[in-house]
Amino acid sequence: MAKQTATLLEQYCERLNPMLEWLAQHGADAQGGVTRLLYTPEWVDAQQALSAYMKEHGLDAFYDQVGNLTGRLEGTQPELPTVATGSHIDTVIMGGKYDGAYGVVAGVLALSYLREAYGQPKRTLEVLSLAEEEGSRFPLTYWGSGNIAGKYDVNELPNVHDRDGVSLSQAIREAGFGAESPYALAQREHGSYIELHIEQGCVLERSQQQIGVVTGIVGQRRIEVRVTGESNHAGTTPMGWRSDSLACAAEMITIVRRTALEVGDPLVATVGNIQPFPGVSNVIAGETMFTLDIRHLDSVVLDEYTEQLRTQLVNIAARDGMTLFWQENLRAEPVLMNSDMIDELQHICEQDGITSRQMPSGAGHDAQIFGNVCPSAMIFVPSRDGISHNPLEYTTPDDLIQGFRVLTQWLYQTAY
User: Which domains does the chain have, with CATH numbers?
Assistant: First the structure.
């Protein structure tokens, strides 16, 4: 029996990469990547294809009002809390084949394998293909998981539009979902949630580890900084008499990098956008805007660093006779993963001789939404060269299979 089960698992491992390639055909773009935006025909077709696959492999497949797709394997003790896995299949524009999709495909195959190998679990198992994690079409992230967790309400749609002016209200209706659709509400409770994902960074590859057990998802502060000086003629204004906002901002940006390095990992601070005004080669910039993206796993460290940085930048502006405008546009708190689930995943890796490390996630994931309402965990597999959100995104079949094995073993131990 054990030999037959092992052989069956190998067969499911061999299906993993072909199924990812199959899913990538839904939304395949001319650049070799995948563009599958929320509620577009490409996204809807992919969800429908997954639904059909779930049904063919013995899972009960159904949608909710926002378009989250669930594949359910009913347990013999339905009163026990449900165990959920999954991720998202929406992508960035010209994204890769693995971000999000890997967790969904692995979840579908894991539940299909467990049903075929062991029959009904004690605890109900679900695999979720969630609606919108990336925020690529609308300025709205974690729409699917947020509705499940009660962060959003489909009856109170945000007034947001895509780049073509299409509203979320119009898009959800045209895709066949929404409060007036025949589907059930998204909001419901789960006993636990586990998400398998590519790392989207280079830590596992460079440290030659097969699995990352995520300890938490970092908090974020996104800030817009404006330095105001005075526009003037580039040829007639002596250097010592200038109020050059761009030169002042440049000094500030070097301080961002230096101070972040001084604090050390896992703090990261990024200036991703700089805009001098008027932005003309022969005019001194009277105002310069730049963005800050600051992340850390500890909210205390995050806030202390951010406030100390603000003080330094204000002092530099005052020294040069300029004004500084500071506006926080996003505040997301860190979310720690469940310590018991972390220990269980670590134990599975040790038992199976799989090299692993505990690590934070520097990117946001649906697990951070579930982590606020139920015990949650994440498993990372390596990303080649750390590349993601790009057609060159790649993880080797062996690494994909290793993550699938760890996920499947954890689901078996937890639900059976």
Answer: 2-217+334-415 (3.40.630.10), 219-332 (3.30.70.360)
